[in-house]
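Same chain as my last thread, 443 residues:
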Amino acid sequence: MQGKVKIEYLPKLDKVLRVTFASIKKDLNETKEDFEILREEVGNFSESFKEKLDKHIKSVTKSVDSNYIDLDKRITDNFMNLEKQINKLGKLTETFVKQTNDKVTKLAKESKKVDSFKILAEELQSEIKTLKLLRSDIDKIKVIESSLENVEEISVNKKDFDKKFISLKGDIDKKLSNYKVENEYLVKKTKDDLEKEKKDISKKIDKIDQKISQHNDSYKENISKMESISKDSKEYVNSEIKKIKDEFNSTVIKNKSDVEDIRNIHAKFSKDIDEFIKEKDLDKKMSKLVENKEVKEIAKQLESEFKTFKKESIDELKKKLISDREDYDEKIKSLEEMLNKERSNVADLESDLNILKKAITKLETKVSIKPTVIKKVTTKKPNNKVEEIISKKVDKKPSLFKRFIDFLVEEVDVEEEEKDKRLQEFDRKKGDKFEIKEIRELK
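reply #2:
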């Protein structure tokens, strides 16, 4: 059998609850006012924050645009300087080719002079040999005259003398003919080598011109592509600039190799000329006619000029490229740091805004004002006509919870509060304990 529960009336607890709910009502009113103030402050802060964000974004976009324009100007200036230097290189190569052609023509003329002098030298050699033979014969005659006693032993028959003379003459003629053939073969060989080297040099120069034109065309196409790309895509622009720089470096390296090939050909050409002149040193007179010093001095001057020009041009290009790369990398790093800082600041501000929005929504849910509902009231007249009156505003019926709170938060009489001194000692904030009569259960 279950026993009935007897609940005794507790006036003290009733009074305590009324006091507490009255204080809660006051706190709710205060929080409403604070919430309205906070709402206004949040609205003002959000407006000022939006204005600051707009200003900051505009300043950042301006700085980025100005930096991009400066970089574009520098790239164009560097490209123009490179075109000028390439044109200078072309002019210098043309002058070098002209000088080599002039020197080749001079050498051809000198070779013709050498051929003409060769004939004279051969004639002189034959005369000298005949004179030597005559001298030897005269010496022999003197010896024969001085030694008349041994004439029979030393004397030579005419037939033997003629045979020996004819054999010696034939040997001399054979040697001279062989020498002529060898000289003619060497002259032809050197001429053919010179012509081949000329053709090779002209082909290499044509290849260099083609490479330069191809590089210019590719560079122009890349510039057109760069202009078509939007300003926002920075990474793509950087990749294109790196590709162009790599292509330019590769072309510079190729041009270096071509120039070194030309230089090696020139060195070989000068060495071959020196050897050719040395091989043709038949006599002191021939060495005087062929002026080796002038050829060597010209070759040395050409090599020194070419070395100085090559060093200056390559060093200037390297310095410019290195300085441009360093400036560009530093600017990109600074811009990236600025952007990262701004992004972090924006993220922090966004997180703060989200926190404020969440707090506002929580407060709005806690303190929600229920709207009034307009009801349609119908009235019937004796003529069975129905009239609708819409202008009456009827509040919704409060819920049971609200009724209970309103019942508890009613004002307490002052006399009853004076009677209960214990209630004055009760502190809501500290949460001191108070006595409550027990509810007994009867079984």
